[in-house]
Amino acid sequence: MSISRKWSAKQQRSLEILIRLKRLYPEATCTLNYETPVQLLVATILSAQCTDERVNQVTPGLFRQFPDAVAIASADIEVLETLVRSTGFYRNKAKNIQGACRMIVKEYGGQVPKQMDKLLKLPGVARKTANVVLAHAYGINQGVTVDTHVKRLSQRLGLTKHKDPIRIERDLMGLLPQQDWENWSIRLIYHGRAICKARKPDCDACVLADLCASADLAEKTTTTTQSWKTNATVPASD
């Protein structure tokens, strides 16, 4: 069946972007270190407004003392706060990871649930965290993970006009096959870190430049500026 007959121009452009990202980052995967779904859940909660690199420095010590939901649920909250302090907002994060683990122990037998609606009931868990856990712990593509990189790049690529992550996710889910929802997110995150940075995107080095609305706009702006400088009249000296 021909894709061109079933997919819109924006959907086809999204697929081409994904194909190029897969070629560029063939081994891309979740950069958080974990061994179990509970550990991935905890690490993802800690990653809010914090780098994965910092989280990976914190979690080895955390998981040595508290390796599972039962241990975290019964931990001294002040000890948890001390262990996660460097990730920022540590009091709230410690409270959330303990609250989530207590609910997991009480309601789900110590196992992280595989259903989106159940995950969203856990303290500190919104769709971003739930999507990461479902995709990387269970291989379930329930949605598109929208972090700061995915939000920024999807907007720059002209694939969404929304600022709200929920609406951005809805737009992206309509543009991509479900089996590639997390492939899209994880590779956009890699590309956002390497090339399409927040302050200064390197459009000249970007393999997506010809498909990117922002790169096209930047090129036109540069061309117009250069043309203006070339054609500007130099005032005669006195």
TrEMBL record:
Q: What is its EC number?
A: 4.2.99.18
Question: Which superkingdom is the protein from?
Answer: Bacteria
Domain (HhH-GPD): give its ranges.
46-194
What binding details are noted for the cofactor? Binds 1 [4Fe-4S] cluster.
Listed GO molecular functions?
4 iron, 4 sulfur cluster binding; class I DNA-(apurinic or apyrimidinic site) endonuclease activity; DNA binding; DNA N-glycosylase activity; metal ion binding
Needs which cofactor?
[4Fe-4S] cluster
Protein name (database record): Endonuclease III
The record's gene field reads nth
